[in-house]
Structure formats: structure tokens, C-alpha cells
Amino acid sequence: MEEIQLKEKINDMVNEIIENVKSKSGSHIESITLTGSYAIGKMALERPNVNILVFLKRHPPARIYLETGRILFSVGKKYQKFFRFRIDMFPFRFAYPVGDKELEVSVNLNLYDMAEKDLEMWMTPTKKVWAPFGAPQAVMQSFRSMRKVVFGSDVLGRMEFHVTYEDILLGVLKEFPLYKLQLTRAPMTYDIDKDYELLATEAVQVGKTCLGTTAAVLLDEESIRQGKHLELLADKRKLLRFMKQAGSPDLGRWTEIVIRARDNFLSVKKDKDKVFEVYDAAYNILNVTFQMATSKLFGTK
Fold first, then answer.
1. Does domain 1-162 have CATH number 1.20.1250?
2. Residue 9: CA atoms inside 13 Å, Cβ hemisphere, count?
């Protein structure tokens, strides 16, 4: 499929999902917001990923979640003649894709209850932090920095984020154990000598997600205040340069492996040795970042 045609089909798919969600649940929706690389026009066509945030009015009925699931699978089955469709629920779970095309498009649709906008969580016995919609403040801040509102009000635009360096470190403690659990259990989920393409998907996703946080951990309080972590998150070339300069030689090499795999995913996923190399890089990035964060917070090694 030609690049222009692929973009058109992805846009059609996204619009169809949004229109169906509005049709079925519009009276319960505060906002529908696109975020990430697709929203800002920097989506990697080797491995397209679309992030949709649906902000629901307070305490929505359970049927909203059931209807949304039906919509996603219905649209996915329709577009499987153009590309393989995957519902991406990372960091909670990975799902088998719909269809058998070589190119895969993943959609991560998050439903957020406005009643949970001001949630707080105890991160340590003495430290409580704001966790909007149950997510680290830095995650929602990054969503805001790359957002495009397509329906309703600008929920993220009305929110004021004051992410500190300590918030970044505490976010690592909250999120990275879950990433590690998924990554380390992935080889036991299917036959990796046969279905290593599935392992490639998980390894690239975990590695890519960790890298933005790794860069933030390597920064300092003033840089976080200025939003430099958001600049690096939005530009993978800047991110790679920074990691090579600020991190260890190994960290720079692992970063390059993950970014290269994302940019050349269609060829990488067919090469078992390269898939295992990406898995190793993602695993090491995850562990090194967690060690750095815990050391900075608690003085441990």
C-alpha cells in the first residue's frame, strides 16, 4: 500500500472509531482527544500507533465500556483488508491482532472517568502525589503536550501540571515494575521461536515507553521544570543524541537499537536475532532506569 493511501485509510479508521463512539456514548462524553505521534503528524508508518483519550462524564454506566469494545473490534475487522489491526492496551495487557496483513496498526483507546481527575496516591508511607485519572502526572502532561481535541472540551488544556524531578522518579517506582512483569512474562506467553514477531511488538513498545522516562531521569529539576523531557519525548532524534551524550555507552547503544527497530519494524520483526536484540535492549533500559531512580530516591545501589 502506498504511503498516501495508508495515511488515508488510517485517518478513515480513526474517524470511524470516533464517530461510532460519539454515536453510542455521546451524552456521556466530556471530550475525545487524540495524542501522541499520530496527533502531531509524526506517526511512524513502519509501526503506526494511534492514541485516543475519551474523557467520560462522572460515573459512566458499565455499558459504555462494553459498547466501546464492540466498536473497536467491529472497526478492526472492517479494516483488516488494508492492515492488521491491534487493540493496544499497554501498560495493562497485549492482545492478539485482527487480520493477517504484514503491516499492523495499533489503537490505544483510554476511557477516563472525570470523577477520577483529582485522584491522589500514596507512593511511599510519607509521600502522596496527584495521579490524574490514576496515571502519573508526567504521563498526562506528555499527553497534553501532543494533543488534538476532536470532540467536546479541552480537558487536558484546562489542567495545570507541575511535574517535579521527584515526581518523575516516583513514577518509575509505580510504572516500571508493571512493565517488567509484562516483558519478562512475554516469552512464556507464546512460542517465541515461532511467534517472535509478537515478542518484537512487546519489546519495542516497552523499550520505547521506557526511553522517555529514562531521559527524564537523566535530567535535573530545572530541566524538568522547563519541559525539556517533553521536547525529547516528541523528537526521537533529539532523544537519541541526548541518550548518547548523557547516558552510558551501553545506554546509548540500547536506545539506538530500540529506535532503529521502531523505524524499521517491518524488517526487524522478521529477523529472530534482531527481535531478541531488541528484547535485550528493552530489558536493560528498564532495569537501569529503575536502578537509577531508586538510587536517587533512597540512596540504594
1. no
2. 21
DSSP 55-112: EEPSS--THHHHHHHHHHHHHHHHHTTTSEEEE--TTS---PPBS--SSEEEEEEEEE
Alpha carbons within 13 angstroms on the beta-carbon side of residue 263 total 11
| Domain boundaries along the sequence of the chain | 1-162, 163-301
Predicted TM-score (pTM) of the model is: 0.92
pLDDT tens profile 8-58: 999 999 999 999 999 999 999 999 999 999 999 999 899 999 999 999 999
DSSP 195-214: -HHHHHHHHHHHHHHHHHHH
Instruction: Give the whole-angstrom CA distance, residue 29 versus residue 49.
Output: 23
Q: What is the pLDDT of residues 123-175, one digit of tens each?
A: 878 888 999 999 999 999 999 999 999 999 999 999 999 999 999 999 999 99
Angle between helices 249-263 and 236-246 (to 10 degrees): 160
What are all long-range contacts of 85-92, with beta carbons under 8 Å and residues at least 24 apart? 85/13, 86/201, 88/49, 88/205, 90/182, 90/205, 90/206, 90/209, 91/175, 91/178, 91/179, 91/182, 91/209
Which residues, other chains included, contact 296 with Cβ-Cβ below 8 Å and sequence gap of 6+? 169, 217
